[in-house]
Amino acid sequence: MTDRQNVFQRLVGKGLYPSQMAWMLLLPFRNLYLSPAKLASRLGLKDDSIVLELGCGPGYFSPFIAKRIPKGKLYLADIQPEMLEKARKRMDQKGIKNVELSLTEKDSLPFPDNHFDVIYLVTVLGEISEPNSYATEMFRVLKPNGIVSISEQAGDPDSLSLANVEKILLPTGFHLNQVFGKGRTYTADFIKI
């Protein structure tokens, strides 16, 4: 299989989104599905929130979220160093300083216990090879009463139904708090009690 075929297969199939196609994740048509403003309204952010974006890719949502928490901090995490570099460049170009980047592992998060107020993933959970390990790690690094927000989109090859997301998060100790949207395109907020 050639590199081009491999990239195309990753683009349309299951698995990590190819970093070579990251520019597609920055196209404005994504606003039709979920705009950064709509996502922010679903996260219950405060101006001093400590937030983790897991699977940030090139940082489509990141600038808007970082600006909504001017006294807080946004941590951008991805398993692909190439995606983190694209996100760093995007944040630098926009002059955003309240951001820290972290390379993650396939089954662990490099953060202390009870650190984040909010963790969000947009069309990412289905790409994670060890989602149950990540659920345990998200529970560990989230503060009590913190929110894990999972957004999924119909048509994404890695999209998970709400029932599948619940099967991953509920056994860890999360409780479903609220759902926005319907069908296969939704945001589900889970709370750590």
Automatic annotation (TrEMBL):
One Pfam family here: Methyltransf_31
Organism superkingdom: Bacteria
Entry keyword Phosphoprotein: no
InterPro entries: Methyltranfer_dom, Methyltransf_Superfamily, SAM-dependent_MTases_sf
GO molecular function, one term: methyltransferase activity
Methyltransferase domain location: 46-153
SUPFAM superfamilies associated with the record: S-adenosyl-L-methionine-dependent methyltransferases
Keywords for this protein: Methyltransferase, Transferase
Gene Ontology process terms (BP): methylation
PANTHER family in the record: METHYLTRANSFERASE, N6-ADENOSINE-METHYLTRANSFERASE TMT1A
Name of the protein: Methyltransferase type 11
Organism of provenance: Leptospira harrisiae
